[in-house]
Amino acid sequence: MSDNPLVAPSIDPAEVAYFERLAHRWWDTEGPFWPLHRLNAFRVPYISHHLCTILGQDPGANQPLVGLRVLDIGCGGGILSESMARLGATVTGIDVTEKNLRVARLHACQSGLAIDYRLASVEQLAAEEMMYDAVLNLEVIEHVEHLQDFLATCAYLARPGGVMIVASINRTLSAWMMAILGAEYVLRWLPRGTHRYRKLVRPTEVIAGLGPDYRLIHRTGVRVNPFTRGFAQTRWEGVNYMLVMQRRLDS
C-alpha cells in the first residue's frame, strides 16, 4: 500500500507504486538503477558546463556551482542531487515517493551532504512561488500524466534568466526497439515496465510545453555502447536526448 499523501494532476499512481517497489535498490550500482548511475557520471559534467557557461560560474573552481539554487525534480534516491551538492550547489530534491526520499535522506546524511529533500509535486512548489537558478528535469517527463500542464508548471520554477535541463526518451520506433524492447526485454538492463511507449516524449513537445518564455541553448542525443555500457553524446536524438533551455529575462 502506498504511503504517498500527495495528490496532483501530474502524478501517475502506477508510476509511484512501481518506484516504491524498487526504492531500496537506488544506490546499488549493479542493480536495476545501474543505467542511472552510468548516465549520471556522463551527464554531470555536461550539466555543470552549461550551468557555468550560462549563469557565469567559474568552471575551473573546485566547486563551480557554489551560490546556485538547484532543483532536482523526481530526485529518486538522490543520485543527481548528491552530485550537484558536491559541486557546491544548494540543492532541493523533490519526489512524490516517500520511500525514495527516505533512501535519499539517509544516503546524504551518510555522505555528509546537506540536501533539502521534500515530498512535493511541481504544482506545490509553483503554488509556493518557489524559483531556482537551475531546474533539472531528467528522466521524469516520461513518467507523468498531463504532460503539457506539467511542463507549463515546471516553466515557472526557473527564475528569469535561469536554466531548465530536460532529458528523456524520444517517442520513435527506434526508441521503442532499443529503450523498451532491447533494454527491458532482451538485455534486461531495466525492469520490464519501466517505460511505456505512449508516455515517451518528443523534443518538440518539450520545447512547445515550456512555451515562448524559454529559448533553446543546446541539444544533444545520447547513445549507449552495449558492450562497455558507456554513454556519449551524438547528433542523433532518435532514442535519448537532452535539452538545455534558458528562461528569458523579461518573462
Automatic annotation (TrEMBL):
Binding site for S-adenosyl-L-methionine: R43, G74, D95, L138
InterPro entries associated with the record: Methyltransf_11, SAM-dependent_MTases_sf, UbiG_MeTrfase
Biological process terms in GO annotation: methylation
Domain (Methyltransferase type): residue spans on this chain: 71-166
Pathway field: Cofactor biosynthesis; ubiquinone biosynthesis
Keywords: Methyltransferase, S-adenosyl-L-methionine, Transferase, Ubiquinone biosynthesis
E.C. designation(s): 2.1.1.222, 2.1.1.64
Annotated catalysed reactions: a 3-demethylubiquinol + S-adenosyl-L-methionine = a ubiquinol + S-adenosyl-L-homocysteine + H(+); a 3-(all-trans-polyprenyl)benzene-1,2-diol + S-adenosyl-L-methionine = a 2-methoxy-6-(all-trans-polyprenyl)phenol + S-adenosyl-L-homocysteine + H(+)
Transferase in keyword set: yes
Gene3D superfamilies assigned: Vaccinia Virus protein VP39
MF GO annotations: 2-polyprenyl-6-hydroxyphenol methylase activity; 3-demethylubiquinol 3-O-methyltransferase activity; polyprenyldihydroxybenzoate methyltransferase activity
Function noted in UniProt: O-methyltransferase that catalyzes the 2 O-methylation steps in the ubiquinone biosynthetic pathway.
NCBIfam families: UbiG (TIGR01983)
Family: Belongs to the methyltransferase superfamily. UbiG/COQ3 family.
Protein's recorded name: Ubiquinone biosynthesis O-methyltransferase
